[in-house]
Specification:
The protein is mainly alpha-helical. Helix content is 51%, strand content 2%. Strand 1 and strand 2 form a beta hairpin. The relative contact order is 0.12.
Length: 211
């Protein structure tokens, strides 16, 4: 029968292969390759091969380092433009500078510093944002929009003693003076009665509607 002969030949071939392997290893049995730990694989393998292990490792490495420095852009300030904006934008209705303006909100006279901090000025505006928006909506019918340059120039105006001195009642139109709010709502914090009145600036009913 051919089957026993084939089986014997196969067994002989396998034995010969085993002897050849042992001789190549100096007679020692062939050892299996050690398994690679997951942490080592996560550090050495590409991101797409180890799944979520690599992202977690990279986040830990990033958190151990200081943040990258960022360059802060600060606009050049123009105190003269800030004084003009203070009047034309209607800030003077609620705020006083050089004793000119309304008293509904805090006066904005600075400390005569030579350095201007637009970020600090913005922070103070942010703290009073809800009250300012309410007053502007009632008195103007809209909320004043200011960009970064506007805020920087307004901050420069409030800190400039020479520019503040140029703001006088004569430089504010009579119509604008009639709109000054003299009740110090920022001190009393009593907004309910004022909001119920729903007052608007005079003469705004005379503005023609856009067709």
């Amino acid at each position: 029968m051919k089957f026993p002969i084939f089986a014997a030949a196969l067994a002989f071939s396998l034995a010969a292969c085993g002897e050849q392997t042992s001789s190549n290893n100096g007679g020692a049995p062939h050892a299996a390759a050690p398994e690679t730990p997951l942490a080592t694989a996560a550090e050495s393998a590409p991101l797409d091969e180890v799944g979520d292990a690599a992202p977690q490792n990279s986040v830990a490495i990033a958190l151990s380092k200081p943040p990258a420095p960022m360059r802060v852009l600060t606009p050049d300030t123009n105190a003269r433009r800030g004084r003009i904006l203070f009047v034309t934008n209607g800030c003077v209705i609620c705020h006083q500078v050089n004793d000119v303006g309304g008293r509904a909100a805090p006066p904005l006279d600075g400390d005569d510093d030579t350095d201007v901090d637009p970020l600090d000025f913005s922070a103070r505006m942010w703290r009073g944002a809800s009250a300012m928006s309410a007053l502007q909506s009632i008195e103007l019918g809209y909320v004043i929009e200011l960009d970064g340059q506007d805020i920087a120039d307004l901050a420069a105006f409030t800190e400039s003693k020479s520019e503040r001195s140029l703001l006088t009642l004569k430089t504010v139109s009579r119509e604008m003076q009639d709109w000054f709010l003299d009740t110090p709502y920022w001190k009393t914090q009593n907004w309910d009665e004022y909001l119920k009145r729903g007052d608007r600036l005079p003469f705004d009913e005379d503005i023609p509607e856009e067709e």
